[in-house]
Each structure stands twice: as C-alpha cells, then as structure tokens.
Amino acid sequence: MSRTKTHVWADGMIRTLFGASLLVATLHAPGGAEAQTSDLVSKSALRVCADPANLPFSNEAGEGFENKIAELLAQKLEKPLQYTWFPMATGFIRRTLRENRCDVVIGYAQGHELVLNTNHYYVSTFALIVDPEGSLADVATLADPVLKGKRLGVVAGSPVTTHVTKNGLIGSAKPYNLMVDRRIESPSEDMLADLRSGEIDGALMWGPIGGHFAKHGGREMKVIPLTAEKNVPKLYYRITMGVRQGELVWKRKLNSLIRRNQDEINAILRDFGVPLVDEYGAPLSGEAQ
C-alpha cells in the first residue's frame, strides 16, 4: 500500500523496510522504551497522521472512514482533532510519528515492526466486484469454473494475484499498478470504471477500497467478499491503529477506546461498504455472505 494506501497490506510491507530502528533506540535509552516516549503524546489534542488524498481512507476534507473514526475518538477523548498530512508512502512514519508531529495512524496492518500496533479494530478481506446483473453475480470463490476465460482486473503484486494464478486465470487478467501516488493515479477507480464499461468482467481488490468504489462513480456494483478461498496466502487481514514504539500507555488507552466503541466503529465501516469478517475470515453475523 504505497498508501498510496491503494492496498492496506502493502503499508506494512513498505514500512518494514525501515526495520525496528526506533524500537532499538528506545530500548537502549535510560529508563527503557516506555519512559523514553511516555511524555510525547499530546495531552491537549488527538493528533492524527494521515494521507491527504487517499479515499476511502482519508483526505483533507475529512471524507474518509478513517477521518470519521478519528472524529469519534476525539469526541470520546473530549479533545480537538488535529492532523499532520503526509502521503502514505516511503518516509511516512519517519516524517510523522517519529518526528512527534502526531500520535496515531488510524489504519495500519497488524504485525509490522515500524509501529506499535493496537488491538485490531476490524478484519476485512479481498473481494470480487462484479455487475449485479452479469454472469458472475453468483460466484463465491475464484475456483468457480464460470471464471475461466473471464478477464479480471487485479492489482499487480497483491496477495489475490497468487490465487488468480493458481486458478488458471492470470493469462486473461488485466493488471493495474500497485505503487502509485493517489494524487495522480487511482488504480482502484480505474478498475471500477473498466468494469462498468465492460473492459473487464470482474475487479479483484482489497475489500475496504472495493466496497466504497463499488457504490460510487457510476452504477452500483456487487461486492463478493472472498471468504471461501482455500489456497494460501490468506486474503483477510487485521487492521489496527499504529503508535510509536514504546507508547504502551497510549496503546492501552486506544485499546480501551476501541473496545468500548466497537459498535460505533463498525457502523462507520459498514456505512463505507467495508466487508467485515471475523478472525478466521468468515463474514461477521449480519454481513453479506
């Protein structure tokens, strides 16, 4: 996800390149990691690091679902919301969290060392986006024979590409760029435009992105969460909030906020069309199957 956050899973991949240098530095400082960073979190505002042009996640107009979640947290903390804007690509964490210009990244894939992850506040999956009146409307898995010979749009290098290859669909697939500047290029919007025009038969993309653009930019498309895939890699991922390494007290406070306001967070995500699944990749109760 150059975040470009064109895809959330790539955020962590990009950021892992920096290693855990901040953690190493704080652990070797007098008093340990928590003592080194405990006074850095603002007591007067909720300071959020965000991409200024990355819908459906965030933008400067506050129209993304991460903006709405940040507003919810600020309300619960009874603090004003302040943003540090920076494109979510190489250098994002260094120029925001590490420079103490902000205190939290609202969306960050779990399991990467550049930030300290909170508990996850949602799990989502890749999805197949199709014409609701078309021949693929009843597809539930990429192993469905009806997909043979169909042209599917896929972001090059994304995890779902492996499934496309294993199911013999890559030969007719149309690739879209992964690493882009979203201020200039939007592969997901381009893919949905191609789907609506008939250039491709289906669009494979990260669910939070696909769920949003399936409802905007033209006739509404059908979102099919890929929850029945048997092959690896997995297609569902836990999304957390990211804070500075060593900020254990702040992490626990955010964990408490997430736990106490999970229903409101879920309502925001559903309003943006994010397909929600449980920790095993199965649709949550009440979600589309």
β content, as a range? 15-25%
Major beta sheet, specifics?
10 strands, mixed
The string of secondary-structure elements, in order, is: HHHHEEEHEHEEEEHEHEHEEHH
Kindly identify the CATH topology of the largest domain.
D-Maltodextrin-Binding Protein, domain 2
Poorly predicted ranges:
1-36
Q: What do we call the CATH homologous superfamily of the largest domain?
A: Periplasmic binding protein-like II
Going by CATH, the architecture of the largest domain would be 3-Layer(aba) Sandwich
CATH top level label of the largest domain: Alpha Beta
Radius of gyration: 19 Å
**Number of helical elements:** 11
Structural class: alpha/beta
* Overall average pLDDT: 86
What percent of residues adopt helix (DSSP H or I)?
25-40%
Oligomer designation = single chain
Global geometry: elongated
| Domain count | 2
